Amino acid sequence: MTASFADEEFTSMQMKGVEPVEIKVDVEAAAKRLSRAVQFPTISNQDRSDFDVKAFEGYHQFLVEAYPNVHKTLKREKLGKPRPYSLLYTWEGKDPSLPPVVFMAHQDVVPIAEESRDQWKQEPFSGAIADGYIWGRGVLDDKNQIHAILEAAEMKIKEGFQPNRTIYFVFGHDEEVGGPEGVKHIVDVLEGRGINEIAFVIDESAPLIPGVFPGIKENSALIGIAQKGYMSLQLSVNGEGGHSSQPPEHSNIGILAAAITKLENTQFPYKINRAVRYQYRFMGPELPKEKQPMYEAVAFGNDSKTTELEKKFIDEMAAQQVTRAMLHTTIAVTMFNAGIKDNVLPPSATAVVNFRIAPGDSKEGVIAHVKQAIDDDRVQIKDISASTPPTNIADPYGSGYKMLEKTIRQTWGNDLIVSPFFVIGGSDSKHFQARPFAPNVYTITGIQLESMEEFGGFHGVNERILVDEYGRSIAFFYQLMNNLEELK
């Protein structure tokens, strides 16, 4: 970031005076279609051999029946390698010289933990409409976004609308396990077809939620502008097993446990990346006034040196789990396997460590860090993931961001804070955002939630969304399609 204190005042970046737009949506009929969609258990299991072909094929057929105008007007392709269950829709624009845009969401959902089933107020795959909500696994993550996009497109086509620039709808089938079969393949296909510039991409991320970010009580719409990279390493120790009555000085489990301990004790250093600087340039002026000098220092800071105020910021961020993860590459030990019997020494022990790679770090750098931290040749290290690098950082000053903020305010009003933010998780859009031809990828789940408690349904129990808010989500995508003409 090149701005300095002399270049720019640390004032509010919020768009002012946007007129609301009223769009009539038949939300009752739309809710019934989303309810039906939830009833297809399109689960992504970690074991990829456990794949419900019938669920995906049934869901695809349902989409054809539910959105006849979309399927008459847009070209639909089933893509993916080796399994072709991701969907690419092409809505041809009037001006083929204009770079296209991409609307994204994913079909797959996470499994239901068996021990949690009795905690659900409605059956997880019932799609129940009750108490003003649509319930079920995937209704928030992320079929609501697929269907809001398709509902909006169906409405627009009925009105005779054709976009100026081509619009792609990209609905992956394996986002919950990283998207290596689906969207990664679609990006390769588009690149192979000669697409060398994509003007704008929107995908899922945080919904609109009051109090979603520390220090902000107001309703917030956070627009993701960058994502961390992703990699999982398997650490393994292989040696002689034997009888537990004759243990060696160091067992395979003991060697691996020591390696894990050394790695966890050698965390990656904290540093402020450009996406975080952008975030606090927009968010900082809306945070408590007494801390604004610190946020100003972050927003206008220089990566080559860290000021005292920036050091204070790092200390405050490091004290909280969510914000800490924004400042460095994280290390998470997620699996540990060894042994089959209490009196048998296992001949091998393995662990899986997941890394979310911050901007400025690389996959190669992470592996080097792990080797140096463990410093034990008995521990073998192998990349077992469909790893991706940290993404490009989208421009929060560009026409795509401004168009998105305007659409948010047209839909949900001006009484909310809109800010770019650095996404510590990830979505399928990372496969676009890591490529040079799609520099401006923005992520937000276009639906209003009542509270952080409701957000707990995301991968948790009692996943649900308000029927009326789903209507506004459809209106949001409808208006976004109108506003695409403002892209430069």
From TrEMBL:
Q: Offer one example of a GO biological process linked to this entry.
A: proteolysis
Pfam families named among the record's database cross-references? M20_dimer (PF07687), Peptidase_M20 (PF01546)
Query: Which CDD domains does this UniProt record tie to the protein?
Result: M20_yscS
Q: Which domain of life, per UniProt?
A: Bacteria
| Keyword annotations from UniProtKB, A to Z | Hydrolase, Metal-binding, Protease, Zinc
> What InterPro entries is this protein classified in?
Bact_exopeptidase_dim_dom, Pept_M20A, Peptidase_M20, Peptidase_M20_dimer
- Gene Ontology MF: a single term: metal ion binding
What sequence ranges are listed for the domain Peptidase M20 dimerisation?
225-377
| Protein family membership | Belongs to the peptidase M20A family.
- Which protein, by its recorded name, is this? M20 family peptidase
Q: Which organism is it from?
A: Microbulbifer pacificus
Q: Organism classification, top ranks?
A: Bacteria, Pseudomonadati, Pseudomonadota, Gammaproteobacteria, Cellvibrionales
